[in-house]
Design a protein that fits this description.
16% helix; Immunoglobulin-like; globular; 3 helices; alpha+beta
Length: 185
């Protein structure tokens, strides 16, 4: 019986989703809800290496074949989460990770790290948003579908308005200190 129990505990430890993420601590009184990502079309942007036809000294527009090459469509993604602060202090800055995990294999498919420097007052709710050119996942299994993925927001560092700092266990201290310095300047 002891052997069977030991085997089951070992199997559970191996197959459970990334444990530090799932059981990660959170700052007192702060909860995350409504996290999501979505594609956002940034629209065409001008390639700085190409000149506009009006930049030509002669005003010559005869080379119209290069006009399309000047515009490059850039993919972008918007990551968002809603933060509710029922803690004792107002928040000044947050460092957060947006994680995407395969629920079947527990493999981390995407990890996006963001910082927001927006005040979240006591008893207030604030939406955090960040834009990235990096797609949500870099690895996609042929059998995976979106419903087989777990999306999670993990707070790494929180700088409060009074300058104090909360830090997620396992987060490098220098990362949070750098956030605090930028938030106080």
């Amino acid at each position: 019986m002891k052997t069977v129990t030991l085997i089951l505990v070992c199997l559970w430890a191996v197959t459970s989703p990334t444990q530090d993420i799932q059981s990660g601590e959170a700052p007192p009184g702060i909860t995350i809800s409504k996290s999501r990502w979505q594609p956002a079309n940034a629209g065409p942007s001008v390639d700085p290496s190409m000149k506009a036809e009006s930049d030509s000294p002669s005003g010559d527009q005869s080379n119209s074949g290069t006009q399309d090459a000047r515009f490059v469509e850039r993919a972008a993604f918007v990551y968002s989460a809603e933060v509710k602060n029922e803690g004792p202090k107002a928040i000044k800055a947050i460092r957060w990770d947006y994680l995407i995990i395969d629920s079947k294999t527990s493999q981390e498919l995407g990890n996006h790290q963001f910082e927001n420097f927006e005040k979240v007052g006591r008893n207030k709710v604030k939406g955090l948003t960040a834009r990235s050119r990096i797609s949500p996942t870099r690895v996609v299994s042929a059998q995976s579908d979106k419903s087989a993925m777990i999306e999670r927001v993990v707070l790494r560092c929180v700088v409060y308005e009074d300058g104090t700092l909360w830090q997620q266990t396992g987060t490098p201290a220098g990362l949070c200190e750098a956030l605090r310095r930028r938030a106080t300047n």
